[in-house]
Amino acid sequence: MPALEVRGITKRFGRLTAVDNVSFAIEKGRITGFIGPNGAGKTTTMRIAATLELPDEGDVLLDGVSVLDDPRGARAKLGFMPDSYGAYPSTTLWEYLDFFARAYDLAGDVRRRRVEEVLEFTSLSALREKEMNTLSKGLKQRLCLAKTLLHDPSILILDEPAAGLDPRARVELRELVRALAGMGKAILVSSHILTELAEMCDGIAVIEAGQIKATGSVGDVTRGIQSAVPVYVRVLEGADRLERTLHELPGIERVRREGDGVVFEHAGSPESLSGVLAALVGAGLRPVEFTPRAMGLEEVFLSLTQGKMQ
Ligand SMILES: Nc1ncnc2c1ncn2[C@@H]1O[C@H](COP(=O)(O)OP(=O)(O)OP(=O)(O)O)[C@@H](O)[C@H]1O
Ligand SMILES: [Mg+2]
Fold first, then answer.
1. Same-domain status, 207 and 231
2. How many CA atoms lie within 13 A of 242 on its CB side?
3. What gap in Å lies between CA 193 and CA 212, rounded to an integer?
4. Longest Cα separation, the chain
5. Are residues 141 and 288 in the same domain?
6. Range with the lowest mean pLDDT among 60-64, 181-185, 210-214?
7. Residues, beta carbon < 5 Å, ion ligand 2
8. CA separation for the pair 157, 46 (Å, rounded)
9. Is any atom of ligand 1 closer than 6 Å to the C-beta of 305?
10. Is residue 305 part of a domain?
11. CA of 280: how far to CAs of 176, 235, 240, 283, in Å?
């Protein structure tokens, strides 16, 4: 059973269909990136999964618990970090966390311990008496993550947690999210910083104009849309002979020189690609580089979405 399963959800706002029959699932201990252009329906999907919005059709199951049939039960399993939140004036970090811990029915020693633990986990312990509305954006995001973890949920939905963070703060956040996945939590994270998602995620779901365009590992999604993979080869000597040899091999297209080496495009299986390498060695060429160039997440995003606005 997946940790979180989105089952055919549709959400309309007036005449606009913000989310259109969206289905995907995420697994325990894995980080799934939710990618799509502005207005694609990411926040709406996440808010439905977090019981903050009702779908017109479909359902979301959290560890098998339906957000429609048992929203309270679903909330106990889930931590939702919204894309923005308000800071209360004259409220310290500790007071803020204590307030939310009470909202989650945590009491006595358990509550005190959980507040300590999330402060510790997000390295905010030293700032516990600071007023939250004096925090910088990065620290505010960390406080929001701390709040999200109070009831130790097994599923985390993080809506653009890295937005507005400087590079160091992003790396720190990524480490925290990785650590949470390491604890076995299932994590859905949306972001526009695609390279960052690629480094952090085990899988992705791409959404545009309310519809899912692709799901799977970054590699699967990339291979799905990329029919031919460019491969760069460089040999110890004899780039001309390399070029001629490649022209004669089957399953190879668009052979061209690039710097000291040669680039060709290959549309076959990994087995046939390894056959190409064997053929080059067999022809007496001595390869020192043989590098398939996978598409980056940025290219995947651009090729799957057309920049449709709605
Ligand atoms: N409460 C609402 N009332 C009317 N329209 C809404 C409402 N919430 C969202 N929408 C519309 O639904 C569409 C999807 O919005 P959503 O916020 O889910 O997109 P998103 O993928 O999160 O975008 P972004 O990357 O900008 O955060 C948009 O066209 C948005 O204007
Ligand atoms: Mg959004």
1. no
2. 26
3. 19
4. 77
5. no
6. 210-214
7. 42-43
8. 7
9. no
10. no
11. 45, 9, 13, 5
Measured in Å, residue 103 CA sits from the centre of ligand 1 at 28
Q: Tell the residue nearest (CA) to atom 2 of ligand 1.
A: 13
C-alpha of residue 308 to centroid of ligand 1, in Å: 14
Nearest CA to ligand 1 atom 24: 38
What pLDDT score does 34 carry? 94
Least confident range of 74-83, 280-289, 294-303: 294-303
Q: Give, using CA atoms, the residue closest to atom 6 of ligand 1.
A: 13
Structure tokens at 79: 């931590």
Which residue segment(s) compose the domain that 287 sits in? Answer: 227-293
Q: Identify whether 21 is part of a domain.
A: yes
41 C-alpha vs ligand 2 centroid, how far in Å?
7
42 Cβ below 6 A of ligand 1: yes
Total domains in the fold of the chain: 2
Convert the pLDDT of each residue in 12-39 to its tens digit. Answer: 999 999 999 999 999 999 999 999 888 9
Tell me: the pLDDT tens digits for 130-146? Answer: 999 999 988 999 999 99
Mean pLDDT of the region 259-282: 90
**Residues paired with 5 in a beta bridge:** 25, 61
Answer yes or no: do 162 and 29 share one domain: yes
* pLDDT the model gives residue 220: 79
| Residue 37 Cα: closest atom of ligand 1 | 25
